[in-house]
């Protein structure tokens, strides 16, 4: 375990890229050292070792094979954190082991977890320019809006370290999520009896529901949309909903033209 502690207890953060490079380089060097069985068991977190190698079969065996010597402590190895709140997935993100992240996500790891300074796995992958890992994390619903203690999202971290492809992808992912969030907001609002009572008529509700469904269909069926496409679709839905939201914002009793349904 001492090797894992040496790796994860290094006092670095995402502002110090040089130190992080040394950390991962050290992990890779240790991974390839020719150690005897006793030394290896004493110096390594076996789950971390498998993760750095990209060995999904070994990861699965540790978690699912009752006879594996590390099975009983698998969850502990997965959740173990250093003093600033990083578990082994942060190192996995640094080296871009996307398949490992997919595998570990099945075993209860919190992909939205933060370090003491508010860094997430997305921030880590963005800083290191691990585009495929970013895509994997977003597919697994990591929080693209999460901010560090400095108020930076993963997109700002990627931009700071000039990870251009990561910036572009995160802009795309956020535009898509913004559209999804607005659709959900509209659906929740127009189906809430407390919010719509006495303010919206049947036509208003029908218009809202159909508009949301049209945007969901667009999301489902459009191939290779751009970030601007998502922005445009959201704006179209906002334009449709503006007069309806205006009615909802009108205090009850002031709009006599609204018929109760």
Automatic annotation (TrEMBL):
Xref: PROSITE patterns: ANK_REP_REGION (PS50297), ANK_REPEAT (PS50088)
Gene responsible for this protein: ANKRD45
GTP-binding as UniProt keyword: no
Protein name in UniProt: Ankyrin repeat domain-containing protein 45
Pfam family membership, one: Ank_2
Keywords: ANK repeat
Keyword flag Membrane: no
InterPro entries: ANKRD_45/46/60, Ankyrin_rpt, Ankyrin_rpt-contain_sf, HSP70_C_sf
Stretches forming ANK repeats: 117-149
């Amino acid at each position: 375990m001492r090797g894992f502690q040496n790796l994860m207890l290094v006092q670095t953060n995402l502002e110090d890229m040089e130190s992080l490079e040394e950390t991962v380089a050290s992990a890779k060097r240790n991974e390839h050292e020719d150690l005897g069985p006793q030394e290896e068991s004493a110096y390594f977190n076996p789950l971390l070792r498998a993760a750095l190698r990209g060995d999904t079969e070994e990861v699965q065996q540790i978690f699912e094979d009752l006879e594996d010597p590390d099975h009983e402590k698998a969850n502990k190895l997965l959740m173990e954190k250093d003093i600033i709140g990083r578990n082994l997935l942060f190192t996995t993100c640094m080296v871009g082991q996307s398949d490992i992240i997919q595998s570990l996500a099945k075993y209860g790891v919190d992909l939205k977890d933060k370090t003491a300074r508010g860094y997430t796995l997305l921030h880590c992958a963005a800083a290191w320019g691990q585009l495929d890992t970013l895509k994997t994390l977003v597919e697994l619903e990591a929080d693209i809006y999460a901010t560090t203690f400095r108020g930076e999202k993963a997109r700002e971290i990627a931009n700071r370290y000039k990870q251009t492809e990561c910036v572009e992808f995160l802009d795309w992912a956020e535009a898509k999520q913004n559209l999804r969030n607005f659709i959900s907001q509209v659906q929740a609002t127009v189906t809430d009896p407390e919010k719509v009572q006495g303010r919206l008529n049947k036509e208003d509700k029908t218009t809202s529901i159909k508009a949301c469904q049209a945007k969901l269909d667009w999301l489902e069926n459009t191939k290779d949309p751009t970030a601007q496409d998502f922005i445009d679709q959201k704006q179209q839905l906002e334009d449709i909903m503006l007069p309806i939201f205006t009615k909802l914002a009108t205090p009850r009793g002031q709009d006599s033209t609204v018929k109760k349904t």
